Every structure is written in C-alpha cells, then in structure tokens.
Amino acid sequence: MQAPLDLKLLSTFVRAAHSGTLSAVAVQVGRTQSAVTMQIQRLEEALGQSLFHRSGSGVRLTGSGERFLAYAERILKIHDEAISAFSDKGLHGSIIFGSPEDYLSAFFPALLKGFGTMYPDVEIKVVSAPTVELRTLINARQVDLALVSTPNPGDAPDVVRRESLVWVGSRPTLELYDFGGTVPLALAASNAIDHKGACEAMTRAGLRYKIAYASNSLAGLIAVARSGLAISVMAEGAVPPDLHILGAPLPPLPGLGIVIVFADAERSPAAIAFADHIRKVLPSL
User: Fold this and answer.
1) Which tens digit of pLDDT belongs to each residue from 152-204?
2) DSSP letters spanning 217-244
3) DSSP 144
4) N or C: which end of the chain has fewer CB within 10 A?
5) Predicted TM-score of the model (pTM)
6) Residue 179 buriedness (CB in 10 A; 0-12 / 13-18 / 19+)
7) Cα–chain-centroid distance for residue 207?
C-alpha cells in the first residue's frame, strides 16, 4: 500500500507547475531551491512517476505531470475547504498576495492587522510589483490575488477604491524650484500607468520636461523628491507627510481605480475571505 500524499509536497508541485522555475517556488515558500528540488523528488518517488522535464531554463510538466496537476489542485482545494468548514478556529491556509509598492505602503498594514485578527491561521505572503508585472504573475498563477491599478476608472463596478495621482516635491510650489525651462521628473518605469499619465499630461499642457530618474521603487522616488532634484508622481495616499502635493502650473493627473484580480476561477476560501475584507475596509482607509 502506498503512503498517503504529503500536502506540502502537493503545494510545492502545483507552484512549480505554474511558475516553471524551482527558484521562483523557493522564494514563494521561503525555502532553498535544493529543498524544493528534494520535495519534488520525494513526490515523484511516492508516485513512481516523473512529473517534470528539467532544463537549464526551468521545468515543464511531463505527460504524467499534466494529469497529476488536476488531481493535486483538487486535493488542496478540498483540503482547505474542509478545514475551514469544520475547524473551530476558522480559516486556514496560505495565500500569495500581490500589490504595487505604494498601495502596500499606504494600505497594507491596516488591511493585514484587521484580517490577521479575524483569521490568525491564514498565512499571507506578499509580492510587491507594478501593475503590469502583477498581471503577468496572475496569469502565470504565481500569486493568488492582487491589487492592481486601472486608469480612468469612471463608474466601473469592480473598482474597490479610487485614488488620485498627484505631483510631489520637497517644496510647496513649482515656482520655488530653480529648474529653468525644463521640469525634471522622477517617475516609475515607462510601462507604468503613472509614468504614462504624467508624460501625457505634461505634453498636453505644453510644458517641457525630462525624465531625470525612472524606477519602480517607491523608496527611490521618495528619496529623489526629498532631494529637491526632481518632481515625482505618486498615489495621493502614499505621499509621505514631509513632502508636498504640487498644483498649477503643473497639469492635473488622471485618476486611478484599484481593483482585485484573481489567478483562478476556483478560489480558495482564504483568498475569497481576504478579498472580501479588502472590499470592506479599503474604501475607508
């Protein structure tokens, strides 16, 4: 008689199947790559089947691996549902949550504190990345759910919160800077919504500008803004108290909508509960 399957091994296998690299799985589960490799080998030995083709670029499922993936996902989902339904302690499980850095800075402490009080046995692992990268991670099912930005949200029903983009600097008005005729900007990477929105707004207003600094690091943008060497753009909720929100002659910036996206239609109870908590709490933060 074969030994029962270890749920930890199943979880590692599912993550590896979706990410395609054992190094990414190691980061997600907080273990070394060699430990992850050993877990996959133990599962293959238990099944008597090879589940992955290995190569220098990563791993891909064998035919047996493709067939077993559906079983592994069903086992993990049913396990989480059963624990949640019959445990006196409430929800259990682990979720990987993605968010842009500015939303993590502005909102995540309050979101996590409230959710952790209600569901102390749910483990939340956090991935910080821009919206464009988060959508890729969601499609690859490397995160379970994420907060992402959408431009010009209007009356979209799925928007959880509307956030203003603002110009940010170390001085209260643009006139107090000695920039000459060209405004230096410190912006997120060129594929980010705020980068595109800032450049388009400056162009429409007929103002000369240059990209003096580009980075997806919120800490880096804040540091440059504090130095007084450039003007930055941030979500209003993420502006530190020692910096100033600048108005005219800088042009208005587009608004953002914050939405929740999921990696899978079959969402775990823990992911559903965290999303419900975000919808309830985020609008009032």
Assistant:
1) 776 667 899 999 999 999 999 999 999 988 999 999 988 888 999 999 999 99
2) -HHHHHHHHHHTS-EEEEEGGG--TTSE
3) S
4) N
5) 0.70
6) middle
7) 33
